[in-house]
Amino acid sequence: MRKGEAKELLSVVGIEAICEQIEQGDSQAEIARGLGISCAALSAWLNNSANHERSARARSLSAEAWLDKGLAAIESALAKTGDIDATAARAYAQECARRAALRNPRYREQTAHEITGSLTIKTLAQELAEINKTPKPD
User: What is the Cα–Cα distance from 78 to 74, expressed in whole angstroms?
Assistant: First the structure.
């Protein structure tokens, strides 16, 4: 599909319908595939001046849906097999959590590093002078 045709299709579908899909946790790749357009065309349309604010809000609201998507995949795998590949489940859940954090900063893990104490920086000459002042044992 050519660029002009993609824009026309997106205008017919409308920003609200696209944003509803985003808020439900659909990726831009999934939405574009469903419409038969390129991801680049969808991304450009979402980020144009008319749609940017609404699409940004939809991405922010989709964070919870991404967390739910990760949990649903794990629950589905358990229901089907009664067992789960822990490594694959962890990787999928982490990717969903990462996407949630990208879409909404409130979903980022908060890590704070506090460093206390003091630091004395000496030049090599100062260090050698102190060594030379130290009495040598007999």
Answer: 6
Tokens 């899909």, residue located? 21
Residue boundaries of the structural domains of the chain: 3-61, 63-107
Residue 82: pLDDT band (50, 70, 90) is: low
CA distance 88 to 81: 14
Rounded Cα distance between 138 and 136, Å, is 7
Mean pLDDT of 80-92: 73
Q: What single string gives the DSSP state of each residue in the chain?
A: --HHHHHHHHHHH-HHHHHHHHHTT--HHHHHHHHT--HHHHHHHHTSTTTHHHHHHHHHHTHHHHHHHHHHHHHHHHHHHS---HHHHHHHHHHHHHHHHHH-GGGSPP------S------HHHHHHHHHHSPPP-
Tell me the pTM.
0.60
Structure-token pair, residue 8: 């026309």
For 27-67, how does the pLDDT look when each residue is reduced to its tens digit (9 = 90+)?
999 999 999 999 999 999 999 999 999 999 998 888 888 88
